[in-house]
Amino acid sequence: MKLSTYNFLTSMAIKGVKVGFPLKLTISKKELVETEFNPTFVERLLPKLDWSAVYGAAQVAELAEDIPAVQPESIADNEELLQKLHHLLFEIDVLEGQLECPETGRIFPITDGIPNMLLNEDEV
Amino acid sequence: METPHFDHLTAQDYEHVYEPAEDSFLLLDALEADLPFLNVLQPRLCVEIGSGSGIIITALSKQLANTSLCLATDINLKACDATRRTARHNEARVDSLRCNLADVLRKRSVDVLLFNPPYVVTSDEELQCQMFAGGSNPSTERNLVYSWAGGKDGRRVTDTLLQQLDDILSPLGVLYLLLLRENKPDEIIKRLEGLNFKAVKFMERRIPGEYLYILKVTRMPS
């Protein structure tokens, strides 16, 4: 699971959960996957991302010094930051770890790069 | 649009995961035919529900030349794994998630949604418990049943998705949905109108024993 994907995941399907976002991420094994840097795409994706979850992911991935805690007004001409966001969002593949619902504490394991977020019948 | 390589998948995989067939290729052909639309749309998040082998979302990811985030969901872990391997094998950037439909994604985030649902008309019993994790180690047989058993009119899973569509699609989002004639596509189009969506039969094809459609669904212009 890439950290860009993490930004879209919620636990709101659990019965009684109101927001379910952001999930609490733990990384126990990750892999670096080099991918081509496309500054335009990173910039276009940003309005769709939740910055607090971007920054939260950076903290877990130990890249917090690369990413400002508050989203800068303009990023388009800040190639250095776009490059760092690219690395954070697309080049870190979480192989083992977990996601935790912020409201219920329900844990979703990440195994072999795949988050298992399928709920049981009594949870929905 | 290039058909992804899937020679890495073996007969052993196909015991658990739906093997690409005419329906998969029709969905690929529809996406290829609608590339001019997709290029204008510039989707940022594309999601395939029930990705199975993963060839469709992998093909789309390759076509969009990695300028879009592509995610695949499936309730069958073996399918999630097959999708991940297919993406890797084709050097596509696709993440795989095990969940029900798109129920883990933030609301109204999906720009392109693809769904080749379990559309075969069956008894509802064959569908029972399909939406849930159930046992930790589902049998081979059950894994594959998920991929085709559609309950009454082959519509149970599709109807559930359509009910959630407003929460899934982004304001400019589009759904490409594969249907069988027995699923009553005209009835589905009417139902979607009631939900404020515009649906058209975008492509259709007769194959041995089945007549297939691709429905293209967008929000009704306000």
Automatic annotation (TrEMBL), chain A:
Pfam families: Trm112p
SUPFAM superfamilies hit by this protein: Trm112p-like
Superkingdom as given in the UniProt entry: Eukaryota
Keywords: Cytoplasm, Methyltransferase, Nucleus, Transferase
A GO biological-process term: tRNA methylation
Gene Ontology terms, MF aspect: methyltransferase activity; protein heterodimerization activity
Location in the cell: Cytoplasm, Perinuclear region; Nucleus, Nucleoplasm
InterPro entries membership: Trm112, Trm112-like
Keyword field contains Methyltransferase: yes
Gene Ontology annotations for the cellular component aspect, listed alphabetically: nucleoplasm; perinuclear region of cytoplasm
Family the UniProt entry places it in: Belongs to the TRM112 family.
Name assigned to this protein: Multifunctional methyltransferase subunit TRM112-like protein
Upper lineage: Eukaryota, Metazoa, Ecdysozoa, Arthropoda, Hexapoda
Automatic annotation (TrEMBL), chain B:
Catalyzed reaction equations: L-lysyl-[histone] + S-adenosyl-L-methionine = N(6)-methyl-L-lysyl-[histone] + S-adenosyl-L-homocysteine + H(+); methylarsonous acid + S-adenosyl-L-methionine = dimethylarsinate + S-adenosyl-L-homocysteine + 2 H(+)
Pfam families per UniProt: MTS (PF05175)
Region forming the signal peptide: none
InterPro entries the record matches: DNA_methylase_N6_adenine_CS, Euk-Arch_PrmC-MTase, PrmC-related, SAM-dependent_MTases_sf, Small_mtfrase_dom
GO (cellular component) term, any one: nucleus
Keyword Iron among record annotations: no
Keyword S-adenosyl-L-methionine: yes
Keywords: Methyltransferase, Nucleus, S-adenosyl-L-methionine, Transferase
MF-aspect GO terms: nucleic acid binding; protein-glutamine N-methyltransferase activity
Protein's GO biological process: methylation
Domain Methyltransferase small stretches: 30-126
Subcellular location: Nucleus
SUPFAM superfamilies per record: S-adenosyl-L-methionine-dependent methyltransferases
Described function: Methyltransferase that can methylate proteins and, to a lower extent, arsenic. Catalytic subunit of a heterodimer with TRMT112, which monomethylates 'Lys-12' of histone H4 (H4K12me1), a modification present at the promoters of numerous genes encoding cell cycle regulators. Catalytic subunit of a heterodimer with TRMT112, which catalyzes N5-methylation of Glu residue of proteins with a Gly-Gln-Xaa-Xaa-Xaa-Arg motif. Methylates ETF1 on 'Gln-185'; ETF1 needs to be complexed to ERF3 in its GTP-bound form to be efficiently methylated.
Similarity field: Belongs to the eukaryotic/archaeal PrmC-related family.
Subunit structure: Heterodimer; heterodimerization with TRMT112 is required for S-adenosyl-L-methionine-binding.
UniProt name for this protein: Methyltransferase HEMK2
Organism in which the protein naturally occurs: Drosophila madeirensis (Fruit fly)
Lineage: Eukaryota, Metazoa, Ecdysozoa, Arthropoda, Hexapoda
